[in-house]
Amino acid sequence: MPFRKPKSVARRTHRQKPLPPLQFSQALPYGAVLHDKGVQFVVYSRSATAMRVLLYDQVADPFPAEVIALDPAKDRWGDIWSIFVPGLRPGLLYHFQADGPFEPEQGQRFDGRACLIDPYARGLAGGFSRSEEGLIVPPKCVVIDDSFDWQGDRHLRRGLADTVIYEMHVRGFTNDPSSGVSHPGTYRGVIEKIPYLKSLGVTAVELMPIHEFAEHMPADNGREHGNYWGYDPVAFFAPHSGYAAATEPGGQVREFKEMVRALHAAGIEVILDVVFNHTAEGNQLGPTLSFKGLENRVYYMLGDGGSSYKNYSGCGNTINGNHPIVRELIFLCLRHWVHNYHVDGFRFDLASILSRDRNGDILPNPPIIEVITEDPMLADTKIIAEAWDAAGAYQVGSFASLRWAEWNGRYRDDVRRFWRGDFAQTGHLATRLAGSSDLYGDDGRQPFHSINFVTSHDGFTLNDLVSYREKHNEANGEGNRDGDNNNFSDNYGVEGPTQRADIDSLRARQIRNMLATLLLSQGVPMMVFGDECRRTQQGNNNAWCQDNEVSWFDWRLVETNADLVRFLSALIAFRRSNPTLRRQTFLRGGESAAGPLPDVEWFSPEGIHIDWYAADASLTCFFGAAGAEESTPDPDPSANGGVVVPRHLMLFAHAGSLPRTFHFPQAPALRALRWQTLLNTGRQPPNDIHPAGDGPVIDVEKPLELCERSLVCLVADTKPISPPPLRRIARRRA
What we know:
Layout: H1 7-16, E1 31-35, E2 38-44, E3 50-56, E4 66-69, E5 76-77, E6 80-86, E7 93-99, E8 102-103, E9 108-109, E10 124-125, E11 129-130, E12 136-137, E13 140-142, E14 165-168, H2 170-174, H3 187-192, H4 194-200, E15 204-207, E16 211-213, E17 233-239, H5 251-265, E18 269-274, H6 292-299, E19 302-303, E20 308-309, H7 324-341, E21 345-348, H8 367-374, E22 382-385, E23 405-407, H9 409-420, H10 426-433, H11 437-440, E24 450-453, H12 462-465, H13 501-519, E25 524-528, H14 556-560, H15 562-577, E26 600-603, E27 618-623, E28 648-654, E29 660-662, H16 668-671, E30 676-680, E31 704-706, E32 710-716, H17 726-733
Parallel strand pairs: 14-15, 14-25, 15-18, 18-21, 21-22, 22-23, 23-24, 24-25
Antiparallel strand pairs: 1-2, 2-6, 3-4, 3-7, 5-6, 7-13, 8-9, 10-13, 11-12, 16-17, 19-20, 26-27, 27-28, 28-32, 29-31, 30-32
C-alpha cells in the first residue's frame, strides 16, 4: 500500500506553492484562433457559397501570396466556416473573401472580388487603398498572440460614486509639439503624461474610440475627410494601429496593454468609448469592407425589402445589435476588452440604438442590453450609456436598468443655461446639483447613475462655450451646416478671442463657475481634456475631422493658465476627500444620518427658504455632511493621504449680471457652525480657492457680497462651535 501524506501536510504544501501570474483571458471562438501548431480560421456566413482565406507576406503586398479555399463539404459546420492551417504564426497577415448572391433588392451584397476584414480580427496593419478594379481594399488582419506580462495588474474596481472622469483623445492628447513627449500621439505618449493626469487627480480616462476605424479612406468625389474622432469603426476587437509608436504588425496590441498597465499603476481606470451602432461601410453606396460581404442581412438593419439601410446612427447604416449573431459579437467583444486588455468600463455611443429591434422599433427588454447587464464576467466593469440616438430615441433617465449609468444631457443643458443667465433656471440647477433625482430616483437608481458633464468631445470646449455665441465649423467643409446649433453659449460682448481684460476676466470666472458646479454636484463628474487650461477649438463644435492644432492639446496652456489648472486639481482633491459630494443615495431633505441637520436645504439670497416660483438668478444650497455609511475611503492611498472627512457645504450661486448681497440662512443650527471659505470665483487667484477648505472664516451675521456671475462655497466641520460657559458670561456682565 503506497504511503499517503496526511491531509494537513498536503494542504500546507499547497499553500506554499507560489501563485501564477494573474492573467485575465478570454478565448474567442471566431476569427484567427492561434494554436501551438498553426491557426484555426473561423467565420460566420449563412448565405456564402464559397469562402477563402487570403494570406500575405508583407503589409504593402497588393496581392495575396497564398489563397486557401475552404471546402463546403468538409470545412463548413452549419453556418460556420472553419479551417486549420498548420505552420502559421503570430504576425501573419490575412483577409477573408466570400462568394454569394448579389441581390441588393433583397439585401444580399456579396462580392467575390472584395477583400474582407475578419469581424473578429484582433489587429489590423496597413491602410485603405483602391484596387485595379476600383474596389476599396481595407487594411490586412493580423494573427495576434494575446499573451502579455501584466505584472500582477488587476482591475481597480473603484465605485462609480468615487469616480472623476477625464475624456480624451489618444492622439490629440500628446500630438502637439508642445507636449514634449518622445512618442507624440500614441499610447506611449499617454504613458509619458500620466504624472500630469495624476496631478489633476482624475480617477479614470475615457478614451474616444480606439478600436480600429477608417481614419483615411479614398473618396469617390476626391474629397477625403480624415476621421479624427474615430467614430467610424471597422474592427471592434482591434486597438487602432495609428495610435501605436511601433510599426510592426500587432505592435499596437502590446502598446495598448502597456498603457493600461501603467495607468492602473497610477490608480487611473480606463473606460472605452465603443461604437456598436454603425460601421464605416456606410449605406448602399458605401464600400464592402467586412460585414456587407459576409452576411449583410444579418449585421445591418435594412429597409425597403433589404435594398436600403436604416440610418438611426446618422452615419449611413445601423448595426442590427439584437440579432443573435451580432449580439454574440458585441458580447464577446466586451469580454475581450475586459479580460484581454484589463479595461475597466465602457461608454456606449448612441446606446439607444441597442434598444431597437431589427425593424427599428424600441424594445422593452432588448436582448443585447440584458446580456451585457447580466453577464457575470462583466460585473466589475462600469457601463455607461449615451442614452439617445440620431433618430429621436431619447432615453435619458429611462435607459435599461440599475446596472447602467448615463451621460446626463439634461445636466449639461441646465448648468449652461443657469450660468448664461437664462430666465427661471434656479430650480433646474438645484435638481442637477442634488443628483437629478427627477431622472433616476423613480426606478431605484442613485446619484452615481448620472454622469454629469458641461462639455464633451461633441460640442464646444469650455473656453469656447464662454467665447462664442455661434459655431464656426467652416474648416469642416460643410458650409457651417454641421454641428449642433443649440449650444447655450455666450461671448459676453466679443465673438472669439479678445484683448478686453474685462471680458476675458468674466469668461475666466464663468469657466470656474461651471467647473465648480460640476465638481460640487452629486453624481459623477466628467470633463473633456484641456478644459482645465482653456483649450480652444476656435469655435468649432464638431471637430470630428480636425486632426490638427484645432483639436490637439496645446501644452503651453498648462503654464499660461496654471491658476485654472490649480483650481481644478484642488476641487478634485476636495471632492475625493469629502464623501458629502459622493453620496451613494439621494438626498431626502430630512434629518441627515450625521446629526440633527438636514442632508439638503435650499435658501434664497435673503437667507429664507427659497420660493421656486420667484424665477431668481441666485440661490443658496446647504449639503449636510454624509453619514458614516457613505464615508467610503479612496482606493488610491496616495490621494489626500487616504483621509476621508465628511463636512458640511454651503453654496451661494449667483448668475446675475450685477453684484448681489446674500444673507446667511437664518437657521440657528447652521449659524452655530464655523464656516470657512473653500472657494470664491469672484476673487483673483490664488485666493479663488483654498484646497483644504481652510480659507477665511465667515461672520454669519454679516452679509456676503457676490460679484456678478460668481459662486462661493463654504465648508464646516460637523461639530458646532461651543458657546462660552454661562458663568463666564455672567462674570463679564458684572
